[in-house]
């Protein structure tokens, strides 16, 4: 695919967006065959992101500025109407989280993204709505979307969509799958050790779902299952050998350590479990902050090692930004972040799992923007999200390869931007 990579010309044209919505609305669930070869992906031409700073503080939560739903938004934020300002502000963030006096700086690419993101969410919703209703497995509640973990993050995505848009049909779909009998069956399976293949990846996603369930609807029906899952995931994390921890920190797939620690830590904060919080913070400091990772996993490596659905070096930064004190993170980032990072969005993923990488990279890019206030990271975030939304072949089509999971990654990525 040929693409003009100048980020200031990234806004999706109205006609193109209409086409995306029409295509995603017709997304079906016809299966397909194997995931494709594992050759290196094709990437877009390099984007030079505009630099700058913004007076924001690091924030681990996904808050909202979308339509008011009447529900409590995630981690103490509230849903509200209205668009983000048409200008960003330069400045620095003080130690108490308050920004210094600022000067407005226009950012047309960001403004265009803010204007379009509700339509992006609407387009991404269609394959999620389709897959969650399938009976692909025998799991009591999470039986659609090919596999357990994809059904879990489909449920998360629909709840986030409800929280951000106020559309009740998204909540109704989730409520229909999470009936008490089905949840009792899921709890029995977890307590009986029937889902070892979902540790750590699927279990980490479930903790995200449980937090979003409460934030979007106020329901606490997932808390018993989340408690059992958090306990098993904690045991997994604390029982890893040094070699396993190293491998997990470098993993670009289901075994990624950063994703597990990040979600355990968020669950600990959500539930007030100080013991779990301190354990995860200690593990992150001892393992993920080890200088060996700086050598083995520099951010520059993400450009060439695009082989699966997670970017391990970016996600290491994503986890450390949330798990460690801001001063410690800033000191580490000062020596870790490259002066000029080349990270171009993928426009022709050569294997199915690589189709999730633009969105999952965006998670880490957003975290770096929130921590540093440097709008160059936000520009990279926008470029990755918009590039992939403009490629519906890799999220709205082919149920077996893409449409049962990739759109959920996109909803997660876009939801992060509502905390701006």
Account of the 3D structure:
Helix 1 packs parallel to helix 2 and helix 3 packs parallel to helix 18. The protein is built from 18 helices and four strands. It has one domain: Glycosyltransferase, CATH 1.50.10. It is mostly helical. A two-stranded antiparallel sheet has the order 1-4. A two-stranded antiparallel ribbon has the order 2-3. The longest helix is centred in the first third of the chain and has 25 residues. It is globular.
In short:
It is built from 18 helices and 4 strands.
Give the helix/strand class.
mainly alpha
Helix coverage percent? 40-55%
Task: Name the helix and strand elements from N-terminus to C-terminus, one letter apiece.
Answer: HEEEHHHHHHHHHHHHHEHHHH
Largest sheet, described in full? 2 strands, antiparallel
What is the total domain count?
1
Low confidence ranges:
1-18, 27-86, 88-103
**What is the fold named in CATH at topology level?**
Glycosyltransferase
Helical segment count: 18
**How much of the sequence is in beta strands?**
under 5%
Q: How many beta-strand elements?
A: 4
Q: How are strands sequenced across the largest beta sheet? A: 1-4
CATH class: Mainly Alpha
* Overall pLDDT: 83
State the separation between the terminal residues, measured CA to CA.
31 Å
> What Rg do the Cα atoms give?
20 Å
Anisotropy-based shape: globular
- CATH-level-2 architecture: Alpha/alpha barrel
